[in-house]
Amino acid sequence: MLSKQQLNSYWMPFTANRDYKEAPRLVASASGMYYRDQNGREILDGTAGLWCVPLGHSHPTVVKAVQDAVATLDYAPAFQIGHPQAFELAEQLIDYSGHKFGQVFYTNSGSEAVDTAMKMVLAYHRSRGEAQRTRFISRERAYHGVGFGGMSLGGLPANRKQFGTLLAGVDYLPHTHNLEKNAFTRGLPEYGTHLADELERLIALHDISTIAAVIVEPLAGSAGVILPSKGYLKRLRELCDKHGILLIFDEVITGFGRMGTPFASDFFGVTPDFMTTAKGLTNGVVPMGAVFSHQKIYDALMEGPAGIELFHGYTYSGHPLAVAASLASLKVFKEEKVLEHAQSMTAYWEDGLHSLKGLPHVIDLRNVGLIGAIELESMPGKVGARAMAAYKKAFAEGVLVRTTGDIIAMSPPLILEKKHVDQLFGKLHDILKHLD
Ligand SMILES: Cc1ncc(COP(=O)(O)O)c(C=O)c1O
């Protein structure tokens, strides 16, 4: 039992602190598909933590690798010096990406990966004599983390409104959510490809000479699982190619198997110029992010004057513990055929989710890969209250989900079995049936 003082001392992130501290929800340990609280009560992890534990919790291979790493090389500076495993991991990550990218740059989080990609974009254009290309095109309802870069690209009003004017020079494509056309679609919807064409309008408005890059999440996760239409990302790539604009996929949640492929770019068959990643990169065990960049970006910067080519980096870039966790995670992905298993579960997952159709207040069910969302009709004047009530009830009854507004999002560890799908949707069925 935590004391009032303890509860008061911790300012919790993205949390309704006052509400939470009235009735704290705590987890004390985890393994495989389950968290446990201090009394040993099991809670099924329907969200892989925060989308970051694809291999399940406390995987012995990852745990052992981190234990060995900390006892061997606890820390190594990353500026003008390296350690061999950081290079080994970079090579393996490029391999894992199918050699569509030339380099990886290490950060500590997804937010930092986004900021890093933005800086690389600007440095790239400058190195080619196009320093006026500084404008980023993002999208409404996007989430790109909480640094001033990512926040300025973000399209969720609540994440922006407390923080002033943000970065100048960002414009936004429309989001791709449309319940009228796409509600209850299984998998990717047909409708919405034309929304990518809005890029032409923004190019006409700002002039192509000012536009540096387009950034999108292949699938918007934090906004509540917003799917693109089948052809949307291909169309966006075509338009970027046509106009010489760099394309960034923010794969912080979609990377490392969430769609049953290494990255969403593989799933969609569309290759961006950058991928920002984090979360599943280390199975969530040690904080780490990575930016994958196209060979042409590195090459352009290597042609400048001798000396440091990119004045950017973090004290903990390529931290030995994070590198060890990532190397071990890649090994598990391969040896245990995790992606094959994830693919084999998607049809059962889809059926489980869509079995909730017809329950009170359910206005949409959507899924792709091992991702699912339930959209509930909001209570008048109380957006988010209904989903939050479901979330609290689910946790009390042994299931962890996640909410954004009145959308319940699910993204389980990729190791889940049919019995876990049954448990998750069975419990949600009972809860939604009786929800006010
Ligand atoms: C698409 C996307 N980008 C960036 C981030 C930020 O990552 P982090 O919380 O590690 O900074 C997130 C986090 O959920 C994300 O979903």
From TrEMBL:
**Keyword Transferase found:** yes
Q: Which InterPro entries match?
A: Aminotrans_3, Aminotrans_3_PPA_site, PyrdxlP-dep_Trfase, PyrdxlP-dep_Trfase_major, PyrdxlP-dep_Trfase_small
Q: Which Gene3D superfamilies match?
A: Aspartate Aminotransferase, domain 1, Type I PLP-dependent aspartate aminotransferase-like (Major domain)
Superkingdom as given in the UniProt entry: Bacteria
Record has Nucleotide-binding as a keyword: no
Query: Which cofactor is recorded for it?
Result: pyridoxal 5'-phosphate
Q: Which Pfam families match?
A: Aminotran_3
**Record's keyword terms, sorted:** Aminotransferase, Pyridoxal phosphate, Pyruvate, Transferase
Entry's Gene Ontology BP terms: biotin biosynthetic process
GO MF term list: adenosylmethionine-8-amino-7-oxononanoate transaminase activity; pyridoxal phosphate binding
Q: Which family does it belong to?
A: Belongs to the class-III pyridoxal-phosphate-dependent aminotransferase family.
Protein name (Swiss-Prot/TrEMBL): Beta-alanine--pyruvate transaminase
Tell me the lineage of the source organism.
Bacteria, Pseudomonadati, Pseudomonadota, Betaproteobacteria, Burkholderiales
